[in-house]
Amino acid sequence: MLKSKIQSLERISSSLSVVFKILKSRNIATTTGSSSSNGVPKEKVDCVVIGAGVVGLAVARELTLKGREVLVLESASTFGTGISSRNSEVIHAGIYYPPNSLKAILCVRGRELLYKYCSEHNIPHNQIGKLIVATGSSEIPKLHNLMNNGIKNGVGGLVMMEGSDATRMEPELRCLKALLSPVSGIVDTHSLMLSLLGEAENHGTTFSYNTTVIGGHIEENRLSLHISETKHLENWNGKFPLQPEMVLIPKLVVNSAGLSAPVLAKRFDGLRSAVIPPAYYARGCYFTLSNTTICPFKHLIYPLPEDGGIGVHVTLDLNGQVKFGPNVEWIDGIDDVSSFLNKFDYSVCTNRAKLFYPLIRKYYPNLKDGSLDPGYAGIRPKLSGPRQSPVDFVIQGEDIHGITGLVNLFGIESPGLTSSMGVAEHIATRFFRC
User: Fold this and answer.
1) Cα separation of 298 and 296, whole Å?
2) Whole-model pTM?
3) Which CATH number do you get for residue 292?
4) DSSP labels, 333-373
5) Is the dihedral of CA 407, 255, 21, 61 positive or negative?
6) Any idea where the FAD dependent oxidoreductase domain is (predicted)?
7) Exposure on the CB side of residue 220, measured as CA atoms within 13 A
């Protein structure tokens, strides 16, 4: 599983003092030895990317390739431990999202860039295609609407199929109609992130793990970041204010903190609260198919979208393992520091499988009792809650919040993986012209 791959390649960072010796040796810091009125050391830097998930890595790579000196701050001990290591690893086509939305535009563009990058850098991936299925007559109009929406978004090759044609492609599948998306695929996310990281490092990006951005303040219309070593937050009891061990003064900041991006933005003293959208968290579990030596499907199989997600679907990884998920479980009550430290409940209860069987059997009726094993869970950073309409990505620059050099990334859920290189290109082109 991807999570275990990441854990096996942990990169443990040094202390902040050692990290900044590296910065100075690379001439990334432009001033040294200064301190604030309370004695906290201050350093000026060029670009800071907060978060080393797949989007943060793609942004860091893009900026460093354009000649910027980039520092990536990550609260965990390695890259990609949050959303990026807990998803379906699907390369989406761009079918679901409203035309002209950022999700639609950046998914389609990101998919093109991602396939090209994977091919050029030998990243394991496979364009296996997807079938979105209607299992009841009431779902057929919705399937046609999806096809029309995908066409408007510029998704090529979409084909509406009768159920009998879909069954010839996938004998275990049962449906009345199916929409074939041949450009959908799967990717080894860990290999992708490792490649992005390596390329960024080779061009001068510095990575500081175990380093948490706990807040910031606006000074002379620029954001100063408050930094702490992660270990000093582990035992925080909430009774005393979080104090920084260092203050960074960047020219450019990308808040790509994933699940904690809105929470962190609220701690930027001087940033108007009205521009920060409400945050919602949707937990999703995955189960794996056991007791089988032959994979029942060759394509990704998706039901029609549901409230908060795109349904419990079939995904295949590059090793042929079959996964079902995710479901949608709304959660709350996460405090700031727990969010910074990714202290979410990622356990998968075996009993939840009983909710999966009837959903899967709508399109896979031969699923046998006892054949689902607990897999893994992920949390999606949503900007809309239960029974609310989905919300677009929010990529927020100075034109919205008025702070020079700050870009906030809010609600980068699915198709965030597919869109990652498109997001990076968008940020570098629109906000950080070099």
Assistant:
1) 7
2) 0.92
3) 3.30.9.10
4) ---HHHHHTT-------GGGHHHHHHHHTTT-TTPPTT-EE
5) negative
6) 46-429
7) 4
